[in-house]
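re: the backbone from monday

yeah here it is again, tokenized this time
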């Protein structure tokens, strides 16, 4: 691309060094990005050719055990929705890792966490979890 043609403040044409010009009313581009911190590198995390931290796609854990990342640090797609989803995935993986480390039953602990997140109150003991009257969504 060598030039953008504008009329009355609106893009009208894109000109290239070679090839035909394109009539366009808009242009999207990515300015690129680079890591603002060298922490992942100092920790020894593997990085890809663009400088993003390489992660396990299921857990967001890096090549360094116990180090998890999410969002812009691991992707070249800079979207808040992606960062939120990766953060949630990493959080679940971290909880599972702690539970495994400490010898707790992962399924029961995650069920209790899900009940708390869905209903806003602590889950009862495992033997009372099936009492549906305690966990009915309020229609109000």
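seq for it, each position gets an aa:
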């Amino acid at each position: 691309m060598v030039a953008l043609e504008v009329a009355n403040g609106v893009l009208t044409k894109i000109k290239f060094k070679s090839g035909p010009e394109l009539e366009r009313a808009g242009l999207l581009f990515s300015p690129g990005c680079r890591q603002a911190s060298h922490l992942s590198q100092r920790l020894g995390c593997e990085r890809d050719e663009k400088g993003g931290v390489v992660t396990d796609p299921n857990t967001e854990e890096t090549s360094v055990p116990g180090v998890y990342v999410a969002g812009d640090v691991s992707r070249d797609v800079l979207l808040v929705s992606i960062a939120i989803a990766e953060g949630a995935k990493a959080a679940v993986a971290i909880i599972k890792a702690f539970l495994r480390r400490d010898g707790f039953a992962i399924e029961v602990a995650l069920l209790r966490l899900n009940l708390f997140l869905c209903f806003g109150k602590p889950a009862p003991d495992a033997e009372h979890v099936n009492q549906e009257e305690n966990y009915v969504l309020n229609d109000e």
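The first strand starts at residue 3 and ends at 7. The first helix runs from residue 39 to 43.
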